[in-house]
Every structure is written in C-alpha cells, then in structure tokens.
Specification:
mainly alpha; 4 helices; rod-shaped
C-alpha cells in the first residue's frame, strides 16, 4: 500500500484529530464528495503506478531477451571450430612418398 508508512506511524487519537480538522476545513456538506474525489484520485494514481510497473517489467523481459541473443551471437562468433582438414585420403600415397624419400619409385622397384 502506498500510504503504509502513514498508517503505521499515526495512532487512533491522531486520526480523530485529523478527521476533525478535515471536517472543519471541508465542511460536513462537502465531506462525502471530497472523500469520493480523493478515492478516485487515489485509484487513478494506483492504476498509473501499476501500469508503469508493468511497462518496466516488460522492458526488463525484453532487455533480458536481447541480452541473451547478443550473448549467444557473441559465443557463436568467437567459437573456433577445428579445421576438418582436406578430405583426401593420404594413406595410399604414403608408400610412394616413402620410396621417393629413399630415392626410388615405389611402383617401379629395381630388382
């Protein structure tokens, strides 16, 4: 409640004094109308505060969603995947390379 701090600090005797002052200032004829107007004003302010609070919560949710998207994008951008390398099979070429290193040809060996 918006006025909770007032209700906790004001005693019963102080409320009677406050009511008497309002009665004298406003008058008994206009007191019900003034009380309704204060109630309407309080209701409007409460609705406006609730609406503002909802908008802030929505912005917070949108911000968290955007932050999560940015974080995911940064992780994807800076993730280094290993190079798969060439797709050729070099195992068949290994005997020929070894023979070339010895100075001969693996397919045409001299006997």
């Amino acid at each position: 409640m918006a006025f909770a701090f007032i209700f906790n600090d004001v005693g019963v005797g102080e409320w009677f004094v406050l009511l008497a002052v309002v009665l004298v200032v406003v008058g008994p004829k206009r007191l019900p109308e003034t009380a309704r107007n204060i109630g309407r004003w309080y209701s409007r302010m409460r609705r406006a505060a609730d609406s503002f609070k909802r908008q802030l919560m929505d912005m917070d949710t949108d911000f968290e969603s955007a932050a999560s998207s940015v974080e995911t994008g940064l992780e994807d951008a800076f993730t280094v995947e290993p190079d798969p390398g060439p797709e050729e099979d070099f195992t068949a070429a290994a005997p020929a390379a070894a023979a070339d290193a010895e100075g001969g040809d693996a397919d045409h060996k001299e006997s």
